[in-house]
Amino acid sequence: MMQGTTTAMAAHGAMQIESLDAFVFRAPADPPVQTSFGIMHDRPAVLLRLRDKDGAEGWGEVWCNFPTVGAEHRARLALAYGAPVVTGRAWAHPREAWETMLARFAVLMLQTGEPGPLHQIAAGIDMAMWDLFARRAGMPAWRALGGESAWPVPVYASGINPTEPEALALAKRDEGYRAFKLKVGFGEARDMANLRGMRDALGGDTVMMVDANQAWTPDEAIAAGHRMAQFGLLWLEEPVRADEPPQTWERLAREQPLRLAGGENLSSMPAYEAFIAQPGMSVIQPDAGKWGGLSGCIDVARRANAAGKWYCPHWLGAGMGLVASLHLKTAAGGEGYVEVDANANVLRDTMAAPVMRLEQGCVTLPDAPGFGVVPDLAALAPYAVDFARG
């Protein structure tokens, strides 16, 4: 963090956290979101709100896409295990709280067999802590993270389904998007027909990527990379399981022609460091609501940039996490894109609308304090879920 930023924030004192609240929302997915491993029939969201002793607030979002029934579970975990750690004491910096949560949750992760959900609530709380931290200092989160100035961050329309994908891609192009990512892994004939349809519709110079969502074996991924190379793709994302060893990724890079992307399903800094060090991995994609929040993901971003890799935040949830991802990329700089789900999602749009102003496929964040947005709970009320807190 820059010295000037540190000094300015220190002047506002430690954050005395008084409360943590959780909110669950669920909106219909029309059409359903299709991936190679499952279909999302609705769009869940878990929001967390921190309040300090002065009444200031910070907001975060917890990853909860799959299974969608897990949204309520994560909200309960946040209240049962996250709140006792972070409330009732003062924190000098969000990173201090994040590291404390990881230490306190370590045995619990082993005991419950639920490292994922516990990492996710720690990430969401950390996100809210950064929003609060920056608001108290009167500066945008991207500056609190060490960024020097806002700049036009490239974004891409993601999650394009395998059913008539060119129609959605053209609609998003009309909204101002200039890069597009198609879901693949639905069989050779369907994947190739969809790629051909999108390329024909969008033109030969339009940026296109594909995401297989861990659909293939290494041999299948190599064959797919060769088949799809004719379409001039920017990257091939998660062609194999995320837990494949480094030598698998090296082989993929050597034996097929497409740039490789991944990282949304890693859950430790050593795992990211190994991924970044792997010559075959070119695009690094941590998800701030799934692991690390802003504290962990800004470290991954800086390591990726230093290694000459692209840092491209993964996000496929509601609006708070999307805005947080834009702040991370603004702070980190470097080449790459921020992911924006192309599918309809009122929970995303209602929250992120104040900052999602596209110009030539880019978003430039404002100087508003924190994330620059506050969820409108009244507007979100029709989608609220009354979950048990016991």
Describe the overall structure:
The strands form 2 sheets. Strands 5, 6, 7, 8, 9, 10, 11, 12, 13 and 14 form a 10-stranded mixed β-sheet that branches. Strands 1, 2, 3, 4 and 15 form a 5-stranded antiparallel β-sheet that branches. The relative contact order is 0.15. This protein has helices spanning 3-10, 70-86, 94-112, 115-137, 141-144, 165-175, 188-202, 218-228, 246-255, 269-277, 293-306, 319-332, 346-352, 377-380, and strands spanning 15-35, 38-52, 57-62, 89-91, 153-160, 179-183, 207-211, 236-237, 260-262, 283-284, 310-311, 338-341, 358-359, 362-363, 384-385. The model is unreliable at 1-11 (pLDDT under 50). It has 14 helices and 15 strands. The protein is of the alpha/beta class. InterPro entries: Enolase-like_C_sf (IPR036849), Enolase-like_N (IPR029017), Enolase_C-like (IPR029065), Mandelate_racemase_C (IPR013342), Mandelate_racemase_N_dom (IPR013341), RHMD-like (IPR046945).
| Low-confidence parts | 1-11
The SSE string, one letter per element, is HEEEHEHHHEHEHEHEHEHEHEHEHEEHE
Global geometry: globular
Largest sheet: 10 strands, mixed
**Overall pLDDT level:** 94
Q: Tally of extended strands?
A: 15
Question: What share of residues are in beta strands?
Answer: 15-25%
**Number of helical segments?**
14
How large, in whole angstroms, is the Cα Rg?
20 Å
